[in-house]
Design a protein that fits this description.
- The structure is a homodimer.
- With about 290 residues, the first copy, chain A, is an alpha/beta fold.
- Chain A has a single domain, classed as P-loop containing nucleotide triphosphate hydrolases (Rossmann fold), CATH 3.40.50.300.
- Chain A is built from twelve helices and five strands.
- Chain A has a five-stranded parallel β-sheet with strand order 2-3-1-4-5, with helices on both faces.
- In chain A, helix 2 runs parallel beside helix 11.
Chain lengths: ~290, ~290
């Protein structure tokens, strides 16, 4: 995040959250707010300011792509344990963007047809077009996370997937898509509280699934699977970012900042007219 | 619209805008505000209040569908001449809804593959799932609008389509989808002004297409095609609504009101727990 948006970001957000060599998930405090010096009220103010900036950049990105002046696009990949706040990010960060420029895909348990194909098949079909902000709510990483933890595929197939993912993402990046991979990181205690709330409130029952506790019981195995995924797939082309998410306000602000960083790097411009403006003005006047 | 949302709606919005027997598009003033007694500032206040109500209803609809307690869903079909404000409706009305509950499709000029199939083929594939608010930005009606005006298909094929559309929409409605068909109606003068603005501002060039003037020159033929479409396809199951759209604030408010009406009619409820709440609380506590 540049100072243009807020003085409360003490450093480059992407750098503060990026998974580099030697990163240990176990050492990251899920209640911390890396790179951000402000508190909740600053965060909310900065989030509101970011909405306006995001809106401007997104419209320019979309506009530029319509004239075929660019192949640039963005893909936000969201992964997390249950209740970590993916839904809140989509609602409050992605939801602030014009829906005409967003392509959201929620990947569920694979269908029979999807299982009959390579694990990337259903994902490739949902890669965003140029000019769009694509959002994956869960993704191909499920196939090396729950896939690994629950041995849903042979070990050698899981191994193969890390390389296949890197090749796939490299191809996207080479074609002009900024790939922003985010894991929302909550603590096991925080998850317990959040799942408990879903069981306490009848208007939250629908968000609860008994399977959530089954997965929760495998917490250490999931953390290990994430750690391995980071080591194998946090590439230069498409690095991972781990966003501490015990504080919802911070997680939203951080993901918005990552989106803003990517868009500012693209630096989209209003495209030139692809027609003769004066001639068109005359044609219009004559109608 | 019920009084629950605003005193400024003097009557049932849906009824005020519905295309009934004897409706003449040519007689409707595109600057009027049918059913609404307030001015722009009231309209903006009511729109903001509607956002909150829409949010609540949408979440309940989505929640109920997740438990398979309902097959209800909504499909908003938007048709209009260029620059009438479809984009603004999607951005400001649809965009206020949680994107996780919205399925937006912008139908463009048909591809070769789409043309090789029946005109409803591409549309059927984009029918919203239960629990979703589907939005069609242009739709199967293009095939009896530009299709008719520009003779893109033989006359007898165009004729056949009206009946095929009615059958298709009846099927959707019988399956639980509320179909809200909206034409945003601007005057020819208003369009001229709006297209002119796109030619005056470099940050709007990308929204302009020389083809817009070609279509504009066929204005009377389009109005006739709309009139015929209304007469042939404004059915009891899926009536048309014509929303005067010279005043953007009114058009947005009216479309929001039509969505609210449909959702209030569905009256979605938080679903019962599909699991034993107490047993799950114990399981969670034990983790």
């Amino acid at each position: 995040m540049t100072a243009s948006t807020s003085q409360n970001w003490s450093a480059d957000t992407s750098a503060a959250l990026r998974v580099g060599p030697g990163f240990r998930l176990a050492d990251l405090d899920p209640s911390s707010t890396p790179g951000y010096s402000g508190g909740k009220s600053h965060g909310q103010k900065d989030l509101a300011a970011g909405v306006i900036r995001l809106d401007q950049l997104q419209e320019r990105l979309y506009a530029e792509s319509r004239s075929e002046a660019t192949r640039a696009g963005v893909l936000l990949v969201l992964q997390a344990m249950d209740s970590a706040g993916k839904g809140g990010i989509i609602r409050h960060v992605v939801g602030s963007v014009d829906p005409q420029g967003v392509a959201l895909t929620a990947f569920k348990k694979p269908t029979t047809e999807e299982l009959a194909n390579d694990f990337l098949w259903r994902v490739e079909r949902r890669v965003p077009e140029p000019g769009f902000i694509g959002v994956f709510d869960r993704s191909h990483y499920e196939d090396v996370l729950i896939g690994r933890v629950r041995s849903l595929a042979p070990a050698e197939e899981i191994e193969r997937r890390y390389g296949a993912i890197n090749d796939f993402e490299k191809r996207l990046v080479d074609a002009g898509t900024r790939v922003i991979k985010v894991m929302l990181h909550i603590s096991s205690d925080e998850q317990k509280e959040r799942l408990g709330e879903r069981l306490d409130r009848p208007d939250k029952y629908w968000k609860y699934n008994p399977g959530d506790v089954d997965e929760r019981e495998l917490w250490p195995a999931y953390m290990e699977a994430y750690q391995i995924a980071f080591e194998r797939t946090s590439t230069e082309a498409a690095p991972w970012h781990v966003v501490p998410a015990n504080r919802k306000w911070y997680a939203r602000l951080a993901v918005q900042a990552l989106l803003l960083d990517a868009l500012e790097e693209i630096d989209p411009q209003w495209p030139e007219a692809t027609f003769d403006v004066e001639a068109e003005q005359k044609r219009l006047a004559a109608t």
